[in-house]
Amino acid sequence: MPQSDRPVLVTGASGFVGSAVARALLAAGRKVRVLLRPASDRRNIEGLAVEQRTGSLVEPASLAAALEGCGALYHVAADYRLWVRDPETMYASNVEGTKSLMEAALAAGVERVVYTSSVATLGWRTDGKVADETTPSTLADMIGHYKRSKFLAEAVVRDLVQARGLPAVIVNPSTPVGPRDVKPTPTGRMIIEAASGRMPAYVDTGLNIVHVDDVARGHLLAEEKGRVGERYILGGENLTLGEILRLVANLVGRRPPNIQVPAALVWPVAVVEETIGRVFGREPFATREGLRMARHKMFFSSTKAERELGYDLRPAREGLADAIAWFRQAGMAS
Length: 334
Description:
Elements: E1 8-11, H1 16-27, E2 32-36, E3 51-54, H2 60-67, E4 72-75, H3 87-108, E5 112-116, H4 144-164, E6 168-173, E7 175-177, H5 186-195, E8 201-203, E9 206-211, H6 212-225, E10 231-234, E11 237-240, H7 241-252, E12 259-261, H8 263-280, H9 288-293, H10 303-309, H11 316-329
Parallel strand pairs: 1-2, 1-4, 2-3, 4-5, 5-6, 6-10, 7-9, 8-12
Antiparallel strand pairs: 9-11
């Protein structure tokens, strides 16, 4: 699809994936406008030539104002937590906020929308094969409020494509790693602990690891070449958690953890962590929802994106190396 000279609005540009998308758009010579909450951490967009607008997904009037004059919308923002004190805030942002933003995009006459969903909305295979965009899933399959909210939000986007002609392409990133993970994400926290030698044991699970900059490039390809209403997995390399931890250990010159523990043994720890989290308002390192998800290896194929978009990816080792280097520079890992 030919791109107009009108600005591109990016939501979530102060976050991990969103800042990578904003940087990729700037590198492509696009005019970038970003929507930021008043309290947003702006470190990830410091020094970038972007137009800043203040608002939030739960303030519909701010969405219409931010979209005024825009030719494209990249909706990357999401409340991404595996544990939350008040789940209603997550649904208000991820589901209702997405609906309000998509309706505002329709009203503004935006030519193309790239909606950032997640592989969390997809099903998983029980036959040893990797999942793809066609692997079925239902709301009942979604473990935890984050996955449920993203499943419902993606359904909102698809419904608006069919009912009102929303010009949206859906991308489903897997597990991004790399620089500027300021929060950090749950995977980023794991990398920090492993790189610092504070992860003596692990649970048997698997993840699809992708460099955050590959995910960002995949977003731009989705705008340019993606088919409206279609979803595209933006993934990387399928690795067991043991393999990931061995890569991290090799990169930092430490011995990898060699104790694999059943999820059932970590369950009491997660209960205690969540109790402390409710009292002190901090996100637990281990959660029951995380352990439920760990029962399934989250392995995915990006073949459709490679074939239709020209998407390509680098080895997971490079993403992990960039993540470690950034965490160390930020003083988050030893």
